[in-house]
User: Fold this.
Amino acid sequence: MIDIDKGKKIGIISSRLAPNRYQSLALLIILSALSLSLWDVPWAQAILSPVRTSVTAVHELGHAIACLATGGSVTGMTIVSDNNGHGGLTFCSGGLPFIYTQTGYLGTALFGSFLIFVGQYPRAAKAILALLGLTICTASLTFMFGTILHGEILQGLGSMLWGALIGAALIWGGVKLQPSAANFILIFLAAQTALNAVTDIIILSKLSIGLIPSASFSDATNMAVITGIPAAFWSILWGIASLSMLSATLWFCYRPKQPKVQYHPLKP
Assistant:
């Protein structure tokens, strides 16, 4: 015979959630709300400039990794503005443009989702910060250096400098910070990456449908050239996909947990 102990001897019903889940969710909400409230404030933009440059690096690394994964090569990368409407550029040769053209915006949303997920685990924060910093430093010494060979010397040098500084700061944080402080930085980056993924898609959509005039190319217009499907379709599609990834991650990580019920057989 099996029964549920309504007292203390036969069964235990526990609905308590891990404190880390509460803390990381509260911190994510606070940082996101604070970032949105200061989004257009000049001094806040100046302070957040390194963070937004790191998000640009994630976007461009999304292109680069997909290019390499599809058999291509990366001959250059920038993560600074070229004053032509581009926050960064990745120069790819070979590979599958249909794939790697899409992995800038989608890759940023995916990385933001990853940071939201690992934000629940403070013990992993130091290693993730160090790994991210090492990746950006490696990119600055390889992909970004190649930009100089394209004749874009100032952009190449500026990108390498920013990449080295951001990468070194992340490595330092991964080595020196306490796990709680490293986790705070990780959740802060998660909030910034997720917000930038959404806002960048909104801006891209406005550009694609003509609400914002632009004579420059974008990932969406490149996809239009590749497929013949209008740029607006791709920007909206990426927006829906990005929001879906972020929403699914938040639901998976922070949905209400069902009480765990343990059954113990009655002793004769």
